[in-house]
Design a protein that fits this description.
The protein is an alpha+beta fold. It is built from five helices and eleven strands, in the order ββββαβαβαβαββββα. The radius of gyration is 14 Å and the shape is globular.
Length: about 160
C-alpha cells in the first residue's frame, strides 16, 4: 500500500485487514494503565479510529469528533489508537477535555498487526475500522493523503447501522 503526506509518497509494508475479515486481535494499554483486549470490546459494534500523532491538528480534530459521538452513543464502543506514549495521550486528553477510550501503542504492535506502520514516519496510517459485535470488519477507510480527515459521516453511518 502507498500513502502520501503533503504529496510525498510513502510505502506501507504489510497486509491491511479487509472488509469481511476478522479484525486482528490486540491487547493495548489505556491512559489509566489498564490492558484492553479487542475481545473486551466485542458484543457491541466497535469504531476504531487510528491517528498518526495525537499532538497534530488533523489527529486532534479526528479524535475530538469521535469523542463527541462517544458521549452520545452508548451502543457503540469508540476507541482511538496511536503510537504516542501514554503520557502524551493523557496530557492531550486533559488539555482538550476528551474522555474516550484511548489506547497507546508505542511499540507499534497493533500497527504491525494491522499493516498500518509507516517506517518513514514512525507513525500509523490514518484510518477507521468499524467492526460488528463479533469482530468482523464491516467498514474500513485507509486515508491515502495523511493530512486529510477521514469520512466521519460514512464511518458513523456504518457503525450505527449495526445497532
Amino acid at each position: 500500500m502507498k500513502i502520501t503526506r503533503k504529496g510525498i509518497s510513502m510505502d506501507v509494508p504489510g497486509k491491511q485487514p479487509m472488509v469481511g475479515e476478522k479484525a486482528p486481535d490486540f491487547s493495548l494499554v489505556n491512559i489509566k494503565k489498564q490492558i484492553v483486549h479487542l475481545s473486551d470490546l466485542l458484543g457491541k459494534p466497535v469504531l476504531i479510529s487510528v491517528v498518526p500523532d495525537i499532538d497534530t491538528r488533523v489527529c486532534s480534530i479526528q479524535t475530538k469528533r469521535f469523542n463527541q459521538e462517544a458521549a452520545k452513543e452508548t451502543d457503540i464502543h469508540f476507541v482511538t489508537i496511536s503510537n504516542n506514549t501514554r503520557e502524551e495521550q493523557a496530557n492531550w486528553c486533559a488539555a482538550e477535555g476528551v474522555d474516550m477510550l484511548m489506547l497507546h501503542d508505542p511499540d507499534s504492535i497493533f500497527g504491525q498487526a494491522y499493516g498500518l506502520f509507516v517506517p518513514e514516519t514512525g507513525r500509523f496510517v490514518r484510518s477507521i475500522f468499524v467492526l460488528d459485535a463479533k469482530g468482523t470488519i464491516v467498514y474500513e477507510e485507509l486515508v491515502e493523503e495523511q493530512t486529510n480527515e477521514p469520512d466521519y459521516q460514512k464511518a458513523l453511518e456504518e457503525a450505527k447501522a449495526l445497532i
